[in-house]
Amino acid sequence: MAEGSSQNYANHVRRDPVFHFFLLPMALLALVAFIVHLVRHPNLPSAGFVVLAAEIVVLTFICRRYALKVQDRVIRLEERLRLMTVLPDPMLPRIGELTESQLIGLRFASDGELTELVTRTLDEKLSADQIKKAVKQWRPDEWRV
Fold it and tell me: What's the CA angle centered on 60, arms 58 and 63, to 5 degrees?
């Protein structure tokens, strides 16, 4: 994660090519194809393939969701550690007031603006998206998938 990257609010959303452009489309395509086959040729094996394809679609989404949740937990831990080193002592007890999504949004704020942004986040109950829009000096997160 190098400082000064060209990542910003407009381009920070990451796409995983294998998931977004292969795995998910192929799973959905298989589900649609098996549904069409079931409609044209209604029988037990065709219905079984629809169920199997639906399971694959659900499994695909669950795997993605689990991976993102683990990343969110790691980000939450990293940001709490960063806040403990960057925030002034009087603000340390307020770290626990930040929600998981707020911590995830704060990861893009540079150390120099973090204190001000945390105060504003807590006082105004900013959402993760509002926090990201408020960041002036973007701290890129190139590791997120």
Answer: 105
